[in-house]
## 1
Amino acid sequence: MKSIELLAPGPMMPLVMEKLGEAFTLHKLWEIADKDAFYREKGAAIRGLVVGGHVRIDEAFLKNVPNVEIISNFGVGYDSVDVKVAAAKGIIVTNTPDVLSEEVADTCLGLLLMTVRELPQSERWLRAGKWEGQGPYPLTHTTLRGSTVGIIGLGRIGKAIARRLEAFDVKIEYHNRRPVADCGYAYRASLKELAKSVDILVSVAPGGPETHHMIDAGVFEALGPKGIFINIGRGSAVDEPAMVEALKKGTIRSAGLDVFEFEPKVPAELIAMENVVLLPHVGSGTHHTRNLMGQLLVDNMTGWFSGKGPKTPVGETPWPKA
Ligand code: 8YV
């Protein structure tokens, strides 16, 4: 397969670079100074893209590489790829589902507990010498006891989160575009209905045009002044300025966020707030899980070019062929 040429627009983890570099001819776009000259000379020879969310893969990008057959995405979320344009061109898009669900769910529960019980704030209290100087950290007003958690997006990761929450003996409700079959949790037909009904709202919503800013001022209003918002999905699903306002004005009580709209940029106003817990998008960030994701990306690429077909094509992709 060495004669097959691939292009990585941005750096990927070593496992991916090494394995794809051994099997294929892999070009590293970020190391190429004259990109126009590269496209002129090599653009038409590129048959696969290896992407990880750094660069938007859209009509304009694909013009440079007109013979691409497959876009292999690192991550379950593939919102940086314009899947509609790819599908119209007959290009396969793959992602890395399942292998990260349990890890992301673990992180979500950690973030939720940190936020509800103010654990980072109480740790800061200790480190600042306040325990000895001023006394115990104040009791928290919020608790999981007797509370209801609403999940936006009861997919693979949402279900893994719900399974963990069951052990915490809380009530679970959810919102999806459609009710999930054979599911015992209460379904709320709209986001506002869900927000109104729960104490803690957890978003696992993916990015992309369909979810853009769907968690807006009205949803925060519905969640209310005792409400807690957790986001482990995509930042773009949230109207970030509206969320900042809601936190500032006490429209909601607090938030725990692993994702942001313009990563790695996090609004300075959020960083200055005491009633938020902020993580730098670490949901799947362990060697164990990232290696599984990397291997799945490699398997998708080699599967396609060896004629076996892609292992995990996304829903919008033209596969299997009709
Ligand atoms: C990764 C993710 O952090 O899978 C996703 O969609 O957001 C995370 O698992 C990300 O893909 C790393 O680039």
## 2
Amino acid sequence: MPKNTLTITDNRTGKTYEIPIEHDTIRAMDLRQIKVADRDFGLMTYDPAYLNTAACKSTITYIDGDAGILRYRGYPIEQLAEQSTYLETAYLLYRGELPTRQQLDRWVTGVTHHTIPHEKIKNFMEGFRYDAHPMGIFVGTVAALSTFFPESKQVFDPEVRRITFYRGVAKTPTIAAFAHRYSIGMPYAYPDNELSYTGNFLSMMFKGTELRYKPNPVLERALDILFILHADHEQNCSTSAMRVVGSAQTDPFTAIAAAAAALYGPLHGGANEAVLRMLAEIGSKDKIPAYIKRVKAGEVKLMGFGHRVYKNYDPRARIIKRTADEVFEVTGKNPLLDIALELERIALEDDYFVTRKLYPNVDFYSGLIYQAMGFPTDMFPVLFAIPRVSGWLSQWEEMILDPEQKIARPRQVYLGEGERNYVPMEEREAVTATRS
Ligand code: SDX
């Protein structure tokens, strides 16, 4: 029976080492025994951007990038998008099981009654410039929630973690909608607890002078599906930020702000906004070849394409594409859709993209739906952040409860100067700039 170990021979010393293999992985710390001299630190692994490093064990989300598989707690994303709701999915991510009817009712009621933020949030929000990007307002305001709920620092109190989960899921749509209303000079529309989670969000975003906003059920359901698709995605950049900041026992609201800050980047959750700007810049189908040329020359990226894990079609993009048709039935087709479809067709036939296994990801089509629903482009990263809060908090709680986890503190490979003595000013000569 083959042993589940790796035999390593250090050719510097001729010594061999047996390293246990568990879950197709070796512990990096098991390499530290490999030394030349006893006083050596021992071997490390060097892995910029963590391309091949597992930072945790998790039971929340499973992705098979080659097969294009995504499952939350074992349930395929296609089935959840088809049969579940975002709030039920958030419960599943956090608790690990689908709720009973009674559990779901209690969970939905709890979230519904936590949607209103402290009135002081408005004063805080009004400190931003009138044209502040709503994601900048979102990041700052979510961090400020830690000052309204200082007890959230008690990260080892299960009751505090539970109420924080309610507050995080419930208050972030309100903060997002308030940020939008502030940036367009509209009065805030307060939560309507008679509406569903996404219906209420649409109301807070788009309510005019009517007494009560009536969400279009097709758009309400489409947004719910989009929120399901965006809820979690294992150890992506923003979730890793949540775990790293949370590992210092920082309160979860401040950690969510750090995660949202990471998501804001155009290579991550900011890509949905960048896709729309790219499609608008291309402007028409006949300009696509020229843009593809610029991509191949490395001048620009094809935003919404490529993924660190998916080397096949992102299963979420497939579902979003189907959802787009239902939305456009109601809103009218987004004129940029034809450019997006033609861009995808060309890219999927082009060797540059095929050899690099670049396929549309979750961000390629989502922005087209958001724009058709009336959301301004700069709100798109915020629309990504809202549902991801349930994933971030689920991953954070898993980290807090994991006995193997401690404060994150990676090592480095030092290639700088050796020891040297301080040089008095009069003895210094201009050193030709060797470093930028
Ligand atoms: C999300 O991690 C997650 O799970 C994230 C996410 C989630 O749910 O949390 O799925 C959400 O962030 C989706 C990704 C959204 N970002 C974009 O659409 C931005 C455009 N995509 C790229 O920036 C890129 O594909 C990344 C950042 C998504 C992935 O980058 P990798 O894995 O580091 O890949 P790479 O940069 O090493 O690229 C490999 C090759 C390179 O070419 P060569 O140097 O080999 O010649 O592919 C090229 C890259 O230049 N490439 C692209 C490209 N993406 C990769 N070329 C043109 N356009 C692109 N979009």
## 3
Amino acid sequence: MNDLAGPHWGRSGTAGAAIPARLTFESITHRFGAVTAVSDMSLDVAPGEIVALLGRSGCGKTTLLRIAAGIERQTTGRLCLHGRVIADETRFEPPETRGIGFVFQDYALFPHLSVQDNVAFGLKRMSRHDASEVALRALERVGLRHHADDYPHELSGGEQQRVALARAIAPRPGVLLMDEPFSGLDRRLRDSVREETLSVLRETGATSLLVTHDPEEAMRMADRIALMSDGKLVQIGTPEELYLRPANLFAARFFSEINEIQGSAKAGRVETPFGVLAAKDLPDGPVTAAIRPSAFLLGDRGQPGHVLSARFLGDTDLLEIAVDGQDDPLRVRAPAGLWREGSDVTISFDARQALVFRASQT
Ligand code: ATP
């Protein structure tokens, strides 16, 4: 069987349900010498919830995951599992007794063990017979039972990822941690592997924390997204909340390309070359309006503009449009084929899709 065979990997109902645990980070700070990798992070992951830790490389996501697993011990702060302190200044529960599963970025399979023995590895408290049975069931769930006797190097990247997932779920952990689990897969495979991983996570019911730098992946997989920058939490919320109501320009920029238009708030209003925006919660002063490329309207109303370039993207075209009073050209998504390079257009935008931030709120 190859990675793309069928919409489902294996037989659902074979994953074995965990008792989901609440995982709570309380003011966690972690330093590596002079580097503060995680700074005063608090995060409460509800039982059975899937939370994505999202951020650029180096923002501290992996460090936070390693602290949850017990591979790293935080400098200060408290980590609780179901309200019980498992790591603070005085206590430290070792990884093997935490009931937490881990899928590493490089899968970390043992090359000298068969697929089945890799999956059975974490089941040391069971008899050999029971461990083999449980390992086979986990392999069945990810559609790889027939590869039980093979060795990791005989499997494709996608299959190795599934073995790593089977190994992590086999002991029925209350919490499952995954560090960029799809980054080694090519695009073609990634979508189907993500979907199936999600259905395995839902089936096991494990509380899950997923590290990713890809906002689309976070939105597809997670109930809530914790956006991080420089070791700190920028915003936490549902995918809709982060996309539609980003807390600042950084969060807005993270989720999509935006056009940034400088302006000034006065009495709760911002005037732009394309229309007036409401900014009722902002004090008077400089602001930045963030407008997504899909929020512009081209037609017979608005500000005159000139199409500098038009790139065909399938369903839509991406246009660059020069507008008087605006230094940088606007990037606009428009229905495919309507406008060409050199066209004169008039441009306005859907004010409901524009976001306004204080200029210092980057
Ligand atoms: P990536 O997506 O690249 O893995 P990340 O968001 O997971 O990045 P971390 O790996 O947690 O980030 O790293 C956070 C910061 O801590 C970085 O500045 C990194 O260089 C530093 N760091 C991580 N591990 C160590 C270590 N063992 N010793 C020293 N510095 C470290």
